[in-house]
């Protein structure tokens, strides 16, 4: 009986470790992706102004 409990305990530890690693990697990649998206959005705003340039009336 103790062999079955030991096997179940080892299997539970292995599965828990794998799940923890998967969740940690998902959180890390989401953080990295959002930082990259923010950086690209900022550079996009710097390169391309949102409004038209100011020109006084009557000048071409």
Automatic annotation (TrEMBL):
Record lineage: Bacteria, Bacillati, Actinomycetota, Actinomycetes, Pseudonocardiales
Natural source organism: Pseudonocardia humida
Name of protein: Secreted protein with PEP-CTERM sorting signal
Residue stretches spanning the membrane: 6-23
Keywords: Membrane, Transmembrane, Transmembrane helix
Region Disordered, annotated ranges: 31-60
């Amino acid at each position: 009986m103790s062999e079955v409990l030991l096997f179940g305990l080892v299997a539970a530890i292995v599965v828990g470790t794998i799940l923890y690693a998967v969740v940690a990697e998902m959180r890390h990649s989401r953080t990295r992706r959002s930082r990259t998206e923010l950086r690209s959005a900022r550079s996009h705003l710097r390169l391309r102004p949102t409004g038209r340039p100011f020109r006084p009336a009557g000048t071409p």
